Amino acid sequence: MTNIAILGSTGSIGTQTLDIIEEYPEQFRATVLTARRNWQLLARQARKFMPLKVVITDEEAYPKLKEALSDLPMEVSLGADAIAEAAAIPEVDVVVTAMVGYSGLLPTISAIKAGKTIALANKETLVVAGELITGMLEKSESHIVPVDSEHSAIFQCLVGEKKTQARKILLTASGGPFRKFTKEQLEKVTVADALNHPNWDMGAKVTIDSASMMNKGFEMIEARWLFGCLPKDIKILVHPQSIVHSMVEFVDGSIKAQLGVPDMHLPIRYALGYPERLATDSAPLSLQQMSTLTFEEPDYDKFPLLSYAFEAIEKGGNMPCILNAANEKAVAAFLKERIRFTDMPRLVHSVMEKTQFVPSPSLDDLIATNIEALSIADGWLSKKI
Questions:
Q1: In whole angstroms, how far apart are CA 281 and each of 21, 23, 24, 275?
Q2: CA-to-CA distance for 241 and 286, rounded, in angstroms?
Q3: What would the mean pLDDT of 28-37 be, rounded to a whole number?
Q4: How confident is the model at residue 103 (pLDDT cuts 50, 70, 90)?
Q5: What's the mean pLDDT in 52-78?
Q6: If you write DSSP's letter for every residue of 51-101 in order, what string do you get?
Q7: Strand stretches in 98-233, DSSP E
Q8: Would 246 disulfide with which of 153, 234, 268, 309, CB 3.0-4.6 Å?
Q9: Is the dihedral of CA 223, 86, 203, 258 positive or negative?
Q10: Residue 26 has pLDDT above 90, yes or no
């Protein structure tokens, strides 16, 4: 029995992870469940899966959750520190980091220090602190199995291969809902438009990042650290069908690709079962139904956030942390209709220019950088509004 902590159990990845646990009840157990504020769903999950620990970070939701679970023999806790502590308890074998944004960083560090296997779905951890995290992993029994469909694909393509034999990573992107929009049309898109992803069912933050292509920029940075390659060796290809999840080109000119239906259950299942593949009754990809698979270059001019991601990782230091903090503020403001879709890259670029650059940041430096960048973003928003 593998005991699993799901950090962010009420979100898209978290709920699908619970689907997998339910599919294999004799192999997996949900030992820790955490959420930000959705206490009603968290309470239902806790009653169904009976974890040892349940944690929520919203202070107003905490007493409601505690009361709802008062008749059950489980610990109910409050706060970000409690999540980090829960990720490190001896009863946990695998930590699924499904929290969104910067909030996933410290719990992941806690899990690494405790030697846990990390099923990484929180790409911001490596965006913000890639060098720090990879250094910690070298000194720990912990290791990462990626959950993002693209990184899972790359990981699978590299199984059995020497990394030195890989020449280029081909990172695929759906292109989002605005792939064919003009710059003028992008000025007028609504929140509802941006949340209408053509292929994937994801949470609001990730869906907006996909629409702006910042998500692909984050995935490029994540791939740089996960697979020890340079940004110049990562090529992004827009693949609207979302069937080829990513590819690896090798030194002999051959290319390996991983294909599958656009369903996150597949990479989650692979991460939890690794190094074994878990048998499932889920319908596989039907290649006969796929008459055309297309690939095209991304439009960096129309989607400047993708360019900023490359700029951030090339500069290094705390710049990717600045990029992430500014983007979190931009997405939140757009979702609340405080700014337009095309204002998001303007905000991000401004914050990247104004936040203090630290070439070799410590964890404390990154925490301070995040606070500073968020404050500068707030200032930009107050002037904009």
A1: 15, 10, 12, 19
A2: 13
A3: 97
A4: confident
A5: 97
A6: -SEEEE--TTHHHHHHHHTTTSSSEEEESHHHHHHHTT-TT-SEEEE---G
A7: 117-120, 143-146, 166-173
A8: 153
A9: positive
A10: yes
